[in-house]
Amino acid sequence: MSSKNLFNIEGKTALVTGGSRGIGLMIARGFVEAGAKVYISSRKAAVCDEVAAELSEFGTVVSVPADLSTEAECIRLANEIAEREERLDILVNNAGATWGAPLEDFDDAAWDRVLNLNVKGVFHLTKHLVPLLDAAGTDDDPARVINIGSVDGIHVPALETYSYSASKAAVHQLTRVFARKLAPKRITVNAIAPGPFESKMMAATLEAAGDSIARNNPLGRIGRPDDVAGTAIFLSSRAGAYLTGTIIPVDGGITGTR
User: Fold this and answer.
1) Which of 147, 149, 154 is CA-nearest to residue 254?
2) What is the dihedral of CA 41, 38, 94, 70, to 10 degrees?
3) CATH topology assigned to domain 13-250
4) Does residue 36 contact residue 8 with C-beta atoms inside 8 Å?
5) Which of 233, 146, 241, 236 minimizes the C-alpha distance to 189?
6) Nearest to 254 by CA among 228, 230, 219
7) pTM, whole model, 2 decimals?
8) pLDDT tens digits for range 6-59
9) Domain locations in the chain as residue ranges
10) Catalytic annotation present for 164
11) Of 113, 168, 200, 212, which is the most buried if we count CB atoms within 10 A?
């Protein structure tokens, strides 16, 4: 095989959850600019529709809103994709929530909201999309599942985000479990663990300590959209076809040099 088109994803079909903002939007934009057909899903229908319309300037982008904190909604989203597509090449499980509070105030709501979306949502949506992913995968070009974890699931976070960091560690382990389970179906499962990026979830932290975070990063800066989009494109292309069960920190060296 020629290495000429090693990083090409043109013509592939992808679903990016949480694709209307933050990391999900960065990946969705990268995919569509690289020639993929992209479905984006998020809880707020109006925002999802607006972002899909904006991204359609670069290619085919379809809005399919859903609240993935329940299995019923995961099933509905999977069914809507199945009504439109015979196969799905790429699933990016990015939709997520965070919660910060002092230990004494961290109650059930702080766990349920985060785990229902960040862990159960990833599990249920992947499970219900296996038939479409299976239809896309081949020996040379498997279907891809890319879960968005976090460096906070690798190291101990500075903030009191107990359920968030625990959920991302769970996503990393679920990635490995799914990688083994789905390999016979020619579906690879990997995770990207982002460090600090400009997003709504990180906005307050970056506003309060962005300069310090950048200064203490080995590469001396906050992540840029191309950093995470490029990693997702790599994993989705022929260049990433032989990787599965990996957790890739995209963090400027925070975890690798600690």
Assistant:
1) 154
2) 30
3) Rossmann fold (3.40.50)
4) no
5) 146
6) 219
7) 0.95
8) 999 999 999 999 999 999 999 999 999 999 999 999 999 999 999 999 999 999
9) 13-250
10) yes
11) 168
